[in-house]
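About this split. The held-out portion is used to measure sequence recovery: a designer receives only the structure tokens and must propose an amino acid at every position. Recovery is the fraction of positions where the proposal matches the reference. Here is one held-out target exactly as it appears in the evaluation file.
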């Protein structure tokens, strides 16, 4: 027996070191509404009442043994469950994290040996007002490490951003626990002071229970956390493949070096051959110039002795074909001159009927229809997305900056480093921006005599329970209220909290309902959702949002598929918004803005503003044509020899062919595009005017034969030249129609309209224009005045002379460029140009800078500039899982989800892995996952999923009703994921549940449109998982983003064996650039092949002539790429249309020269080339080059940047390169390697 003195001491030690409580039960009301203090109780633990057994098993299963003697009662367990609903919903997706977390609170609330690690420091009667909680540092670090990576699928954030009171990157084990135990968080009823120490003191032993790492499974069979929620569960971090190094040789660009060496080698070989032949000739021939002229000399480079040519079968076939063409066109020309009015009236009738289709003309301005083929992948994916989830919303956006320099530094009341705030976050500026925002929200538009407000068209994700419009704005952190923005907590001495505190909290935890500062204001917007700082702020560095230099206000509007009435209402409101913003003025604010309709409106305005420029351009060309056609012999005969009326008629024929082409396709329901309207008249004018000049000038230079009548003369002339006209026009027509095989709508439409217009123009010229030429010739022979046909001059003898341009080409230009030394220089220069262009062809940029599509004075340009400078996030990207996947099965769930038990190569996991290398993948963040949030929402531990047991209908977590029961039982099977019928039974409830304070996982706001349910909720159809691209500024960024997203989607498709595709709103516009190089090469090669075939056939099956024409046109096209690189013109649909057009115009520059060379009967190549250039060169030069040059120069005055770049620059290059190759290089090439066969030898016809 112990001495009596030890009795009291033993009792103290027994109380201290045995199972001993510090509280039990709940007593008085706390200062926080709805919260209670615990009752002070320093006695032994008390057995739990049976009604609390289920709660104990649910919350703290470690104490579910024996008689369950604890330091908490049933009321405390219920309070614990209510208080931990939010952490439960966010952390339970990682079992180890949630187990450690619950251990912390179960030990605090119910541990039967609380007195070992808890110390009550303040009591008021029976109420515990303050305690100390001794926590092992090892435990707290392990708990934090297990939870630090857990994601919030709906917001793509770390869960600790919501639960730590600050951004997850600033959270650690200590401040996280301190925040949870602080009364400032709005949940803790009294202060709990955590003391972190691993060492036991004389009085207390820190709580250091067993913990689990996030990569460890639990004893209850729960698996390790997923890679998305636990870095330790992941393999090595993905490493992006290295960028391919630039192709260099000896540090020099490989293409440049290769082409430079090739050019040098060519010059050496070419000059060597010339020198060798020259030396050989010098040794055997006394006259140096003899070989050029003497065709009988077998050593002449230019020898073409037709008598030595034995015609092959193919050549004889070609001769017969040529003879048939000459005979037909001669007869036809004679008929047209003999029956002019019949021909003219017939042509007018046909043109009228064809052009009548313009009544049905539709002009496509929809960018999607213009740039994306209905059969393209992006278009089909867009249509699939629109059909199952609705079209992507329309966007109204403002970027607000300030010219003021009113930045401030804010010092928190509770200490800490001073925080700088930029000028745009000054409270006065924020108030002014809020005034602007509220005025915009109050705008009222009128559509068909009905008022349209923002609420009629805006995106309201919680409607009908909350009809407030979604407004992504930093002002929505203050619920768009001046009062909340001005909310402060202060006394006469100190300012404890103001908008600075609230802003800093909200940018770190935008989804919170209580900022836990002394303000206790919500961060959620009035529409019920979070405002992510990267969407509402711009111009900041890293995540220092307080340094933002721009405020971004975004108003998403509903878009409507096949509902023009509501769509027109949205467009009407946008129009009102644009008008308001154009008139808005505030010296303290600089606002760049845009609406969904802005780009289309500005393109329309641009087209209208450039009408005067285009009209002036065509007027200059028309005037030149009218004046240049005439050949004035003397001033007295000015009005007789002029051909103004014939020139105007020729122009009208060109315009009629364009109108007929547009009309015929309008009959067929093919819509027009702005490119067709702007480009085709230019093209047909080039082709048509060239033909007009050839016809008229050939007639002017011809002498009528003896006993030959006018109709016979014009018939003979037409027989000579019409095959050449037919050759060029038919080549272009076939080339254009083959270009219509392109998948790009803009190119396809242009090619169809252009091909038909060119061919109709040819038909009208050899019929209607020939008849008009016959009438004009009769007028001129009768000395009647042009235009004033009734007046006539008296008879007089006039000497017929050639035009100055013809004489210049014949006497000066042609002989000069075909001299020996000039030919060598020309070949060297043009091959050098070709080598340079080949060297830079792979350096031409791909894409279309969207700024170029806007007028110089467009407000959208300022928006584009600010968007590139300030925005920090890219466009949303949706990974769409097509219908057919069985989400009710574990296999289907594991293939896409990102939580515990999901496949390592699941959809969510692969997108998450891609976000880790965002600089390479362009995927900015983890995707929002409706499936993972649904699993968290439906867990029986959560109060989210409940239903009325009497009706079976959904019961929201905020409803207090005893008939509401949990969806799933608290059993091992009930804690598992729902499968089969259970999955579909509760999913519609999840998708209709609005998030609230007790359940933040409701899926209505985030996922209402993400899941396409089958009728009557019988199954899940198509679904999407959304994330964001990284910031995209230039065309190459958008193209790369599309490419990488598709690669990722293809990988996912292969992994889960089910079709998944990536969709973003810009994909339909940029998909063309993935294949633009292939499309360009294919279109141009097909056009060249068509030109080669047609040229070969129509030149009497002259294969070599077809090769020379095709090679020359190919050189022009390659040189066009060189000009594009030099002049900063990118490769896109607009420039591709121009390249296809240049292919057609180049035929005009080349084919006439080659045919003239082929039919020439001069003695050698040089003379034949000289004759062809003299006769055809002047017509081609005056018909195309001079006509177009004046009109092109006017385009430089256009306000439209796209006109200046893609029309002025490219048209000028087309004309100059075409003229240079057709009139300089091609004759030289023919003089060297032109074919020796002379077609006229067999036909006994001379062209001239």
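Reference sequence for scoring:
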């Amino acid at each position: 027996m112990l001495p009596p003195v030890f009795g009291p001491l033993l009792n103290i030690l027994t109380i201290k070191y045995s199972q001993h409580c510090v509280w039990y039960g709940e007593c008085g009301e706390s200062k926080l509404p709805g919260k209670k203090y615990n009752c002070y109780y320093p006695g032994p633990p008390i057995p739990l009442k049976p009604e609390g057994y289920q709660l104990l098993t649910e919350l703290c299963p470690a104490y579910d043994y024996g008689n369950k003697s604890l330091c908490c009662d049933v009321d405390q367990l219920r309070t614990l469950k209510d208080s931990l609903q939010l952490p439960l919903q966010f952390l339970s997706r990682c079992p180890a994290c949630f187990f450690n977390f619950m251990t912390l609170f179960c030990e605090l609330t119910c541990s039967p040996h609380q007195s070992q690690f808890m110390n009550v420091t303040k009591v008021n009667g029976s109420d515990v007002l303050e305690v100390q909680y001794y926590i092992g540092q090892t435990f707290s670090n392990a708990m934090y490490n297990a939870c630090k990576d857990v994601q919030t699928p709906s917001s793509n954030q770390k869960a600790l951003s919501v639960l730590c009171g600050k951004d997850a990157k600033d959270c650690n084990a200590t401040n996280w626990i301190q925040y949870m135990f602080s009364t400032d968080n709005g949940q803790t009823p009294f202060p709990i002071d955590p003391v972190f120490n691993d060492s036991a003191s004389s009085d207390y032993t820190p709580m250091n229970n067993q913990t689990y790492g996030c990569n460890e499974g639990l004893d209850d069979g729960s698996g390790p956390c997923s890679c998305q929620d636990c870095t330790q569960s992941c393999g090595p971090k993905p490493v992006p493949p290295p960028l391919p190094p630039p192709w260099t040789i000896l540090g020099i660009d490989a293409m440049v070096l290769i082409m430079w060496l090739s050019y040098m080698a060519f010059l050496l070989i070419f000059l060597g051959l010339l020198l060798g032949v020259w030396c050989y000739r010098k040794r055997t021939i006394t006259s140096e110039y003899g070989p050029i002229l003497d065709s009988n000399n077998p050593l002449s480079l230019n020898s073409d002795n037709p008598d030595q040519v034995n015609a092959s079968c193919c050549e004889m076939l070609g001769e017969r074909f040529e003879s048939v063409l000459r005979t037909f066109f001669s007869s036809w020309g004679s008929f047209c001159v003999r029956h002019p009015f019949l021909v003219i009236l017939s042509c007018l009738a046909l043109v009228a009927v064809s052009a009548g289709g313009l009544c049905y003309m539709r002009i496509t301005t929809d960018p999607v229809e213009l740039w994306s083929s209905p059969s393209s992948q992006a278009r089909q994916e867009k249509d699939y997305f629109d059909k199952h989830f609705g079209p992507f919303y329309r966007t109204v956006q403002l970027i607000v900056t300030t010219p003021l320099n009113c930045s401030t530094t804010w010092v928190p009341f509770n200490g800490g480093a001073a925080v700088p705030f930029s000028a745009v976050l000054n409270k006065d500026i924020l108030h002014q921006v809020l005034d602007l925002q509220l005025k915009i929200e109050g705008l009222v538009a009128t559509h068909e005599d009905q008022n349209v407000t923002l609420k009629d068209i805006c995106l309201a994700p919680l409607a009908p329970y909350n009809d407030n419009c979604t407004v992504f704005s930093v002002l929505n952190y203050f619920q768009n209220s001046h009062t909340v923005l001005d909310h402060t907590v202060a006394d006469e001495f100190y300012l404890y909290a103001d908008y600075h505190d609230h802003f800093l909290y909200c940018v770190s935890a935008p989804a919170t309902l209580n900022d836990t500062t002394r303000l206790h204001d919500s961060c959620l917007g009035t529409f019920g959702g979070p405002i992510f700082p990267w969407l509402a702020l711009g111009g900041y560095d890293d995540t220092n949002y307080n340094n933002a230099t721009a405020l971004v206000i975004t108003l998403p509007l509903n878009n409507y598929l096949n509902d023009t009435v509501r769509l027109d209402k949205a467009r009407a409101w946008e129009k009102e918004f644009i008008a308001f913003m154009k008139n808005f003025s505030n010296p303290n604010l600089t606002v760049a803005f845009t609406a969904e309709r802005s780009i289309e409106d500005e393109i329309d305005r641009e087209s209208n503003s450039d009408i005067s420029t285009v009209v002036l351009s065509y007027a200059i060309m028309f005037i030149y044509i009218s004046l240049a056609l005439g050949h004035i012999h003397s001033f007295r005969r000015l009005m007789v020899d002029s051909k103004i009326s014939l020139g105007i008629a020729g122009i009208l024929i060109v315009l009629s062919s364009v109108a007929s082409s547009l009309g015929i396709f309008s009959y067929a329901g093919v819509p027009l595009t702005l490119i067709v309207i702007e480009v085709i008249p230019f093209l047909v004018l080039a082709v048509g005017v060239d033909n007009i000049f050839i016809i008229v000038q050939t007639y002017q230079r011809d002498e009528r034969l003896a006993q030959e009548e006018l109709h016979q003369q014009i018939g003979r002339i037409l027989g000579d030249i019409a095959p050449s006209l037919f050759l060029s026009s038919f080549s272009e027509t076939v080339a254009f129609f083959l270009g219509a095989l392109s998948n790009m709508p803009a190119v396809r439409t242009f090619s169809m309209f252009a091909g038909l217009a060119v061919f109709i123009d040819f038909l009208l010229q050899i019929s209607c224009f020939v008849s008009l030429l016959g009438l004009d010739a009769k007028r001129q022979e009768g000395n009647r005045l042009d235009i004033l046909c009734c007046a006539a001059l008296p008879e007089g003898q006039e000497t017929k002379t050639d035009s100055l341009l013809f004489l210049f080409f014949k006497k000066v230009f042609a002989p000069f460029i075909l001299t020996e030394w000039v030919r060598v220089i020309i070949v060297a220069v043009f091959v050098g140009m070709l080598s340079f262009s080949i060297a830079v062809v792979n350096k031409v940029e791909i894409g279309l800078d969207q700024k170029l599509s806007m007028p110089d004075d467009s407000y959208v340009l300022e928006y584009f500039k600010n968007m590139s400078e300030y925005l920090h996030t890219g466009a949303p990207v949706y990974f769409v899982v097509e219908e057919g996947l069985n989400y009710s099965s574990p296999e289907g769930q594991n293939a896409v989800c990102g939580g515990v038990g999901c496949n390592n190569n699941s959809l969510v996991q692969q997108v998450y892995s891609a976000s880790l290398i965002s600089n390479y993948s362009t995927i900015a963040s983890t995707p929002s996952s409706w499936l993972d949030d649904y699993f968290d929402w439906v867990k029986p531990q959560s109060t989210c999923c409940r239903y009325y047991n009497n009706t079976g209908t959904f019961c929201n977590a905020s409803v207090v009703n005893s008939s509401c029961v949990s969806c799933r039982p608290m059993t091992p099977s009930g804690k598992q994921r729902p499968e089969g019928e259970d999955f579909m039974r509760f999913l519609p409830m999840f998708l209709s549940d609005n998030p609230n304070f007790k359940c933040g996982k409701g899926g209505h706001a985030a996922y209402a449109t993400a899941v396409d349910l089958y009728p009557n909720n019988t199954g899940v159809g198509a679904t999407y998982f959304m994330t964001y691209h990284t910031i995209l500024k230039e065309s190459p960024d958008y193209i790369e983003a599309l490419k990488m997203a598709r690669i990722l989607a293809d990988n996912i498709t292969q992994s889960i064996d089910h079709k998944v595709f990536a969709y973003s709103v810009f994909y339909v516009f940029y998909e063309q650039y993935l294949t633009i190089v292939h499309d360009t090469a294919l279109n141009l090669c097909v056009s060249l092949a068509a030109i080669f075939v047609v040229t070969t056939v129509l030149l009497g099956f002259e294969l070599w002539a077809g090769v020379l024409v095709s090679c020359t046109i190919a050189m022009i096209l390659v040189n066009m790429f060189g000009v594009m690189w030099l002049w900063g013109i990118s490769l896109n649909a607009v420039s591709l249309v121009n390249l296809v057009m240049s292919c057609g115009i180049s035929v005009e520059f080349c084919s006439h020269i080659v045919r003239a060379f082929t039919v020439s009967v001069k003695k050698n190549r040089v003379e034949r080339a000289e004759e062809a250039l003299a006769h055809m060169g002047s017509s081609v030069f005056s018909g195309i080059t001079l006509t177009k040059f004046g009109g092109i120069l006017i385009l430089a005055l256009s306000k439209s940047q796209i006109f200046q770049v893609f029309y002025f620059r490219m048209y000028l290059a087309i004309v100059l390169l075409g003229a240079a190759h057709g009139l300089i290089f091609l004759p030289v090439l023919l003089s060297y390697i032109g074919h020796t066969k002379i077609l006229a030898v067999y036909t006994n016809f001379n062209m001239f």
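Annotator remark: Residues 315-348+630-666+677-733+753-785 form one domain.
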